[in-house]
Amino acid sequence: MNSTSIFTKSSQGPLPVSIPILASYLSSSCLHQAQAPQKIQKRKMLSGLLNSLLWFMGMLLFINYMEATTSGFSNETDQHALLAIKDLILHDPFSSLSSWNSSLQFCSWRGVTCGRRHRRVTSLNLSSLELAGPLSPHVGNLSFLRVFDLSRNKFHQILPPEIGRLFRLRHLSLEDNSFQGELPSNLSHFSNLKFLNLKGNNFRGKIPSELGSLSKLLQLNLDSNHFTGSVPPSFGNLSSMQGARLGFNNLEGIIPDELGRLSALHLLYLYYNNLSGMVPEQLYNISSLNSLSLVDNQLTGPLPRYIGSTLPNLQALYLGGNQFFGHIPESLVNCSGLVDFDLSYNALTGPVPNNLGNLQNLERINFGSNPLGDENGSDLTFLTSLTNCTNLRVVWFFENHLRGVLPISIANLSTNLYRLALGTNYFTGDIPVEIGNLKNLESLVFYENMLTGRLPDSIGKLSKLQNLNAYTNKISGNIPSSFGNLSRMLRLNLVDNFLEGTIPVSLENYSQLEVLELSYNHLTGAIPEKLAGIDSLLGLHMASNNLTGPLPSQLGNAGNLIELDVSENKLSGKIPSSIESCVMLEDLNLKGNFFEGTVPSSFKKLRSIRVLNLAHNNLSGQIPKFLAELPLLGYLNLSGNNFDGEVPAEGVFTNASAFSVAGNDKLCGGIKALQLPECPKQRRKTGVHRKVVILASCAALFLLLVVASACAVIRRKKPKKSGPSLASPLEKKYQRVSYSELVHATGGFSSDNIIGDGKYGTVYKGTLGSDDQVAVKVFKLLQRGANNTFMAEINALRNIRHRNLVRIVNSCSTIDFQGNDFKALIFEFMSNGSLESWLHPSSAESQDFKNLSLLQRINIATDVALALDYLHNQCETTVLHCDLKPSNILLDNDLTAQVGDFGLAKILLAAGGESFSTESSSICIRGTIGYVAPGIILSNYPSSYSFRNQLATYPIIIIWNGRFGNSYGILLLEMFTGKRPTDSMFTGDFNLHSFVEAALPDRVMEIIDPLLSIDIQEEVQTRINGPRGRSSINIEKVKKCLESILQIGLRCSADSPSERMVIADVPSELHKTTKILSNS
């Protein structure tokens, strides 16, 4: 027998070799070699050794057999655990777990890795698959698991405590999910854990102190949750810890001294909490630390003088937004690797260290909003030293007490510099001509200093400049014409200087300009025509100059304008009627000029106006009654003109403190507080004339009653169409919303509050004030086209009001705390979410099961049709939504549909301002795949028309004889079949339209949404089991109703535009389908 064969395994497991046979074999072999009588003693020794060897080999065989049998059992356990995890997943949009079935061995399933020896699951990586649902407690049975990654999914509910059984776990990442509740304390059982990432969830309560027992932990990330209480002192026991992130929580109390024991720590982030007290000195002694962020807490005390010596490896130091005081330690220049240095918004005093230039790796320095400065005027040496920092990109020294002549050396700062902010200090002297060398500057800020001299022509070389702010200085001379080269300019503010001369016509090149502020100077001449009509303009301020001539008629092209102030000039002529196009206008100030004529009747279209000041001009005529009908007007000043006639007594005219008409001597009437004479009453005629008047009045009254009766009958038969409505309470309450208010409202734009995310923007749920819920759409301005999308939404929403259109509360266009551009729209929050969440609920939404009945779906479809009819046929300019889909249709408390997201909206205006003819014109628009008709040809456009270049990439939608492209039809089919147009079943020429077309009329009940089918069947059954014992709902009538609805969907989504149903006809056609049901 071959001795090696004894230990060989067959495919069925270990060979059944018995221990006695093995003993017999080995005994005979050994005894044969020890026959001699003289070796008895050795034989006894050999016999003892043999017994030990037999016992050892028997145990090996036993363990080998048991391991093989238990391996089979454990493999089965792992498979059952994985299937249990899959069973609780409610949403798998990419069918990522389709391989998790019996056709494949589970070690080959997606995301699963098994060990080679035992074939047990050692790694489970399901990151970034958009899976949603609770996590099964069976995960605790994957006892060999070492790596577990569910990051960037939508798992929710509590983290099951059974996860604490995974004692072999080394890597656990649950980042960016929606887990909630408290952390299980038994996570401390992960004795081998090295990486723990729970960032971006909804965990609450205190951070378990038991986590301090994870002695092998290297990285801990608890960012962006809702943890409360203090930082556990037990974290000081994590001796291997290299990185700890606890930011964006609600932690309070002091930073525990014990953290100073973390000698291996490289990174510590405790930003955006409510921590208080002094930073422990021990923390400043962790020499390995290279990144420390304590931003936006309530920490206090001085910075240690030795900090730069004990933290020599620092690369990033963020201490902004606290209450640190005292001097900036000069030892910080010993941190030669420092890249980011932020001490802003504290109470630091004294001079800025003049050897900052030693920080040669420095890229960003922000010492803003500290009372820094040296009263002797030798503050600015540090600016010269910073010229040694060749990587410098951001320099912020604003709201300090720095004083002295602005050194020419600032022009020698790094050519990588793109933001330079020196506002609110005591700088004197001229702006250096050499400033034009800083070719990458995007933002240049000198406001509130004492600078003199002229604006250098060389600033015109800064081709990337977007923001120039030099208000409240003593700058004189002309505005250089070279400024017209700054084609990227967004904000130019030169208010409160001594500028003179005319406004350069070259500024008309500012095609992206948002805010132009030139008030309180000595400028003369006319306002350049095209400058006043830049479409992107939000604010135009030219008050208190010596400007002459008329107000440019091209002002009407500035359709996004919110504020216009040209008060206290010498402007003359009539107020241009084109101002009616500025329907976003909120503040109009024409006070103190020589305008004449009447108040243009076009002012009635300024539905957003809040402040209107026409005082001290030469205006005449009667005060228009429509001023009393402007819904948001809160302040009106008509004083010092030549108005006559009766003062209205409605609207803004009911509050004496909200308007002024003083200095108009020919006025009468109005509210009593004005103490104006009564208006003269016309004499009543007697005799025959009186009888004629009475008869005429009676006839008119009779005719009015007839017309009113006819209208009532028509309104009963015709669906209601909502027209413009007055401002909502939220609009009135939040007339201005700042960036900081939005930060607070959304929890710092927390991922927990995200309710929608798209290419150009992210939508957050927020709370303004104490309890006003809103939806805040923040635009991703780094995404190409996002700024245009912001403008498109404002253009689309600025002059439309309809009960079935999402109402915009306000907009916010500013810069954030880091000085980056920020744009957001604030909408009323829709409590029932989007139609998408009802038709295709995600895992989290499936927990609260909800379904739309047949009537509810018809009502929603009617609401959407009414909104589109309003946009296409009732607005003065046709508005195309261009991205109609379930996620852009929101539902309020009553399930009334409101169409939103106008980011791709187009307003049909020709180049010359005339509306396109809907009879023959077509226009191509980008939209969502599946909802717009591909392959539509363009007509009436030259070959150079820019949209032609996008034909190969984007689907197209058109208007033809008032017939809207097929997105509404596709939406209607999706609402009643429950199938997305992008469903994997649709390939080639087979699509949702052809799917429905093939099924009608015989198989209508087979293709409708299963949830709708269940609802109908339950309704039928309920009626059958009712008191009458029979159904009062006719299933055949239901089929006929559904068939009619789907036919409408097919007609609206027909390939040929000429065959499509006119959108104005859709509401009445849908109304007819409800009559089918009511007659059943």
In short:
ATP binds at residue 777. The chain crosses the membrane at residues 48-66, 692-714. The protein is of the alpha/beta class.
Low-confidence stretches: 1-34, 65-73, 684-689, 710-734, 907-926, 933-964, 1024-1032
What is the CA–CA distance across the termini?
A: 90 Å
The average pLDDT is: 81
The total strand number stands at 59
**Tally of DSSP helical segments:** 17
Spatial shape: flat
Helix/sheet category: alpha/beta
Q: What's the CATH topology label of the domain at 836-1080?
A: Transferase(Phosphotransferase), domain 1
Radius of gyration: 38 Å
The CATH homologous superfamily of the domain at 836-1080: Transferase(Phosphotransferase) domain 1
CATH class (first level) name of the domain at 836-1080: Mainly Alpha
Biggest β-sheet description: 24 strands, mixed
Draw up the topology in text.
Layout: E1 9-10, E2 13-14, H1 19-32, H2 40-87, E3 112-114, E4 121-125, E5 132-134, E6 147-149, E7 154-158, E8 171-173, E9 178-181, E10 195-197, E11 202-206, E12 219-221, E13 226-228, E14 243-245, E15 252-253, E16 267-269, E17 274-278, E18 291-293, E19 298-302, H3 307-310, E20 316-318, E21 323-326, E22 340-342, E23 347-348, E24 364-366, H4 381-385, E25 394-396, E26 403-405, E27 419-421, E28 426-430, E29 443-445, E30 450-452, E31 467-469, E32 476-477, E33 491-493, E34 498-502, E35 515-517, E36 522-525, E37 539-541, E38 546-549, E39 563-565, E40 570-574, E41 587-589, E42 594-597, E43 611-613, E44 618-622, E45 635-637, E46 642-647, E47 659-660, E48 666-669, H5 688-717, H6 729-733, H7 739-745, E49 754-757, E50 761-768, E51 772-779, H8 786-797, E52 808-815, E53 821-828, H9 835-839, H10 843-846, H11 854-874, E54 879-880, E55 889-891, E56 897-899, E57 906-907, E58 959-960, E59 963-964, H12 967-977, H13 992-999, H14 1004-1007, H15 1010-1024, H16 1035-1052, H17 1066-1078
